[in-house]
Specification:
This protein has about 90 residues and is an alpha+beta fold. The chain contains 3 helices and 3 strands; from the N terminus they run αββααβ. Strands 2-1-3 form a 3-stranded antiparallel sheet, with helices on one face.
Length: about 90
């Protein structure tokens, strides 16, 4: 089936969005859950809502109530293999 112009572009964009949504990504929120030093939250998920839910599942109720607002900020999202490190604090 031949498609042209705007229709082909829309279908291509929808297909790419669907594929990206179905691909696991690493979501990383840095500088959160501050006590003496900043913390980090991360989750492997298909989308940001699932990432937040996975973090919630690992948090105690008091932690989630105290810090869930920090997860409303946009995280860093990694689509491909990478490496990094974060120094510990004290």
């Amino acid at each position: 089936m031949y498609m042209h112009g705007k229709t082909a572009h829309i279908q291509s964009t929808m297909k790419n969005n669907f594929i990206m949504k179905k691909k696991l990504k690493l979501f990383v929120w840095e500088g959160i859950r501050r006590d003496y030093t900043a913390g980090i939250d991360f989750a492997m998920a298909y989308d940001i809502e699932e990432a937040r839910q996975k973090i919630k599942e690992q948090s105690d109720d008091w932690e989630w109530k105290a810090y869930k607002g920090e997860l409303m900020d946009e995280p860093k999202v990694y689509y491909n293999p990478f490496g990094t490190w974060i120094s510990g604090g004290g």
